[in-house]
Amino acid sequence: MAFYITTPIFYVNAAPHLGHAYTTIAADVIARHRRRRGEEVFFLTGTDEHGEPVAQAADTHGITPKELADRNAEKFKALMPILHASNDFFIRTSDDEHKAKVQEVLTRVKDNGFVYKGLYEGWYCPRCADFKSEAEQGPDHTCLIHRIALTREEEENYFFQLSAFQERLEQLHETDFVQPSTRAYEAKAFIAQGLQDISLTRGKIT
Question: Per the database record, which ranges form the Methionyl/Leucyl tRNA synthetase domain (predicted)?
């Protein structure tokens, strides 16, 4: 049986800390356990080098986003042997191989009619690099994670038609596709609320 596991793909806006070690060790334990059971395991980790938080951190340090990404990606890569992690691959989202695969997948999605252009308006957290729904906001339109004020933004983006997959995802989550079962219940509850189309692009980020 094939089994795939990944750590979070870590942001390079800062150097590794204890939380990164924790998630890596947790994933490594599962990967090793599955291998001992005779399963074919692929264990991935790596760095996410795009987005507003990275650009803002680089600006704070007076360097380019690429310089910051190169500096911190090496620190994350060096962390793996220190933790004796058994990862099979370390991916950087700036790698040419990764870029080519993303382009291939998004082209297929677009060619199948699931991408369209539309206007998005909402409350945005620059540190999360994400728009927040009403349920994800604190008092006076603040980010529940970073405790900072959100900004109201409007932009023209390309959207992925996630809503078209409502029924298929409901059927998929009736199987044991998501493990553990507690997380499956969370996923099913989220889907049951009604899936919304999601933005694939950010108009203000270049």
Answer: 3-135, 142-202
